Structure formats: structure tokens, C-alpha cells
Amino acid sequence: MNFAVLQFPASNCDQDAVHAVQLLGHVGRLVWHKDHTLGDADAVIIPGGFSYGDYLRCGAIARFSPVMQAVQQFAANGGLVLGICNGFQVLCEAGLLPGALIRNRSLQFRCEHVFLKTLTTRSAFTNQVPAEKLLRIPIAHGDGCYFADPESLATLRKDDRILWQYASATGEIREEANPNGSLENIAGICNERRNVAGLMPHPERACETLLGSADGRFIFESIIHALKNRPAAQAA
Amino acid sequence: MKAKIIITPKKAVLDPQGKTVQNALSHMGYEGIGAVHVGKYLEVELTSKDRERARQQLDEACHKFLSNPVIEDYRLEIE
Questions:
Q1: What is the SS3 assignment for A220?
Q2: Does position A232 have pLDDT exceeding 70, yes or no?
């Protein structure tokens, strides 16, 4: 499979994302923010970092870059798009995902491993996560507090679109396990069509036991599984 | 002409910066301090002479780009 990994000025997890994809035996290719096309891509990863210096708001400027117009089209055609950390912020700013990510409630940059509970395996991003398995994955962000208005939040809940929540080591959704003040401990969500997802934690930094956890693989393996099993008509 | 744009967090949105500044003001001994909201202030110098057109364009830009309507309100003034 071919993964297009976007590269903005001040992206800093782009190489990690390419590395993770390669570890799983697939092809990761960097796509520059000024490019108008994605080239041969089965899925898109919008990596973490501080695109355009986080000026104005995180992700606010990146969403207007030429490559994001191509991503909008790719998503509209049913292509799989995963936004990680800053990539999640870009997807929210672009309107591809609802809500927004605001300053952590603690006002601190949080850099630590967290536990994620996967709420549904009914998505291209979670289908390979074993039942009851908590994912131990690192976070590294200052603006990861998920906010959405009550109606949007109710829709996310009703449609089974909250993919991951911050949990305790024993899997309970508690306030103490919430690293940034996100509503309902939300760590990641998907769109209505379930082909675009974003999360604040960094699965690409947790794909090798040498790095302390390989749980991030479940997310990439889910995408690969979904791509291998996609209906021919959806092959973008 | 110059446009002044004031962007503030919506009331329903958590504003930890505002809360921290409010607490600091109280700790410093200032009395009668209520909620504080920390936002952004932008000044845009305008080369156009058409005031109404400038307002229309900047209003659109505020909505699309300069503020995020999910979490922020804005006020646009042209002088």
C-alpha cells in the first residue's frame, strides 16, 4: 500500500510516520504542502508537528495549503485520511472533522504515555484493535483539549464516531486519566462517512517495543486491513 | 483605513488562560475582578478606499480564517 505523508513547514513527525509505515512493509512517501496532487496514494497521513509555527491557531494556515485541497478531494472520494496530533488539528480546522482542539486545561505541554480505550472496531482505523485491549501510546501536545458543541458531541456519540478515549491503566474513563481537559476524555474521532479520523496521541511513535510500546501498530494495521478489503469501486 | 479585529473565546468554551489571569489578579489584591477572557487582537492596514467592500471581505475572512466559529467570536471595526 502507498501512504502519502504530508509535509508542512514545521511538521516534525513526518519521518516517523513514514518509518512506521515502512516497518509494516508498506510504502510511505512525503508529499510537500505546495503540491497540488497526492500522486499514487491509497491513504493519507497528516503528521504531527507545528505546521506554519502554529501561528493564528494550530492547523489554521495549513488547511489552506494546496495539498489540503487535494486531501479534501481524496476524502470526498472515500479515501482514508488519518490526522495525528497537529494533523488532527488541521482536519478540524479544515472542517473534515467536527469540533476543535484548544489549549490544554492545565496550560502545560503534556509529553507522556497514556492509555487509550478503543470504543468501536467499526472503522478503518480500529478494526484490528483486539477487544478490551488498551493502547499505550504517547502524547506530546499543548493544544489537545477536544471541544465540540453539545449537538455535535451528541451526534458523535450516537453515530459511534468517538474512536478513542483517554483511560486509566485499568480501562476506566476517569477525570484523572484525561491529560488535557478534552470533553468526555475524547482522544480521537472519525467523520460521518468513517473514512477520515484524527487523534492527538502518536501511534507512529509506538510501533516498536524498543520505543516502549508497539500498540500503535494496531491502528496502522487496521488501515492496511481496510485497504486490502475495500470494495474495488472505492479504490482511489 | 485600518481594521481592528477582536477575537474572544466563546462563553461555552473552557478558557484556562482567562481563569489563570483572573486568579492572578485576585491574588495580587485587585478587588472586584470577575471572569477574564483572553483573546486576540489583530490590526489590518487597508489600502482600499471602499469601506463597505473592505468590511465585507474582512468579515468573510474573519469567518473563514481569522477566527474559528466553533470556539471563537469576533468583532470587526473599521476606522
A1: helix
A2: no
Contact by Cβ (8 Å): A151, A186 = no
DSSP for A98-167, please give it.
SSEEE--TTSS-EEEEEEEEE--S-STTTTTSPTTPEEEEEEEESS-EEE--HHHHHHHHHTT-EEEEEE
pTM: 0.95
State yes or no: is A202 an active-site residue.
yes
Residue B57 has pLDDT above 90, yes or no: yes
Judging by DSSP bridges, how do beta strands A134-141 and A110-118 pair with one another?
antiparallel
Q: Which CATH number belongs to the domain containing residue B37 in this structure?
A: 3.30.1280.10
Domain span at residue B55?
2-78
Tell me: the pLDDT tens digits for A25-44? Answer: 999 999 999 999 999 999 99
Q: What is the dihedral of CA A215, A216, A222, A225, to 10 degrees?
A: -90
Judge whether A34 and A64 are in contact, CB under 8 Å: no
What total number of domains does chain A contain? 1
- Listed by number, the residues of chain B in 47-76 with a beta carbon closer than 8 Å to a beta carbon of chain A are 65-66, 68, 70-71
Cell digits of residue A21: 509505515
Provide the residue range defining the domain that includes A55: 2-234
Q: Kindly tell me if the per-residue pLDDT of B51 is higher than 60.
A: yes
Question: Is A100's CB within 8 Å of B16's CB?
Answer: no
CA distance A99 to chain B (A): 6
Asked casually if ipTM beats, i.e. exceeds, 0.85, the reply is yes
> The CATH number of the domain where A32 resides is what?
3.40.50.880
State the total domains in chain B: 1
**Greatest extent of chain A over all pairs of C-alpha atoms, in Å:** 47
